[in-house]
Amino acid sequence: MTSDGHLELPGYAHIYSGKVRDLYAPRGGDGQPRADQLLLVASDRMSAYDFVLDTPIPDKGAVLTQLSLWWFEQMADLVPHHVVSTDVPAEVVGRGVLVERLDMLPVECVARAYLTGGGLGEYRSTGAVSGVELPEGLVDGSRLPEPIFTPSTKAPAGEHDEPIPFAGVVDEVGPALAERARDLTVRILERGNAIAQERGILLADTKVEFGLRGLELAEGEDPRGAIRARGAAAEIVLADELLTPDSSRFWPADLWEPGRQQPSYDKQFVRDWLTSSASGWDRASGEAPPPLPEEVIAQTRAKYVEAYERLTGQTFRS
User: Fold this and answer.
1) Whole-prediction pTM value?
2) Secondary structure element (H or E) that encloses residue 159, with its range
């Protein structure tokens, strides 16, 4: 492993490391990184409040990867996904997938079926979320009359995503592609909730990533300009992760009670500990959070594994 935390994988060039995932490009016969594929590796790193925590969660990367693969298959009739193969180097089996390299949409596609988190804060201030007007009297955990699309900016590393109205998505990608992204995001949430509720889980909200297949950029062409100009003619493809405890909020259906924060199977558990008196951390200080104690690490891993097993009906194997 290198000094900055990523693996040295023979036959692959390290391209980028994000908060949770590491990207590698397979090398072609000439030894140069291929331009058409990526190896996407989910690490055990945990991010919260725009910080990568010092303490990883064991098996988290494997849970995210294997759950995403399962969900991709559940959505295959709605939208294609980017996975090419799970035949990957032994060092990353179970948490790495070979994927198609796509031109990614420059917005975060978020849909909500219940009101909580940042959406709740925005609603309390304005009565709306991302420009979508909502009924009066909603509380933390309220089920929305129907799922809504609440996109946000895709901020650079270290900066905060900011909610934007649908018109902001239109400005970024054009009206036809914005409508496709909105409709697909909401349909994915609805399909996910129909499946999850059969297993005793409520899917409160989720963020999905879309890329474009067949945009065919000219050398040196600005991707954003190309997406606005020609994106509607390209094929939209699901990318990154899908309906995982990192990208979604999962609640036990039998414990759902509007008017309070809900128990969850996702990383809200870590956020709650960080903002509790037990951590001693002041979120407003600008300082990095403290390491997680062993019991929080163990309980977080258990929640991720339980979410995987309840949703898929399969025993998790790391």
Assistant:
1) 0.94
2) none
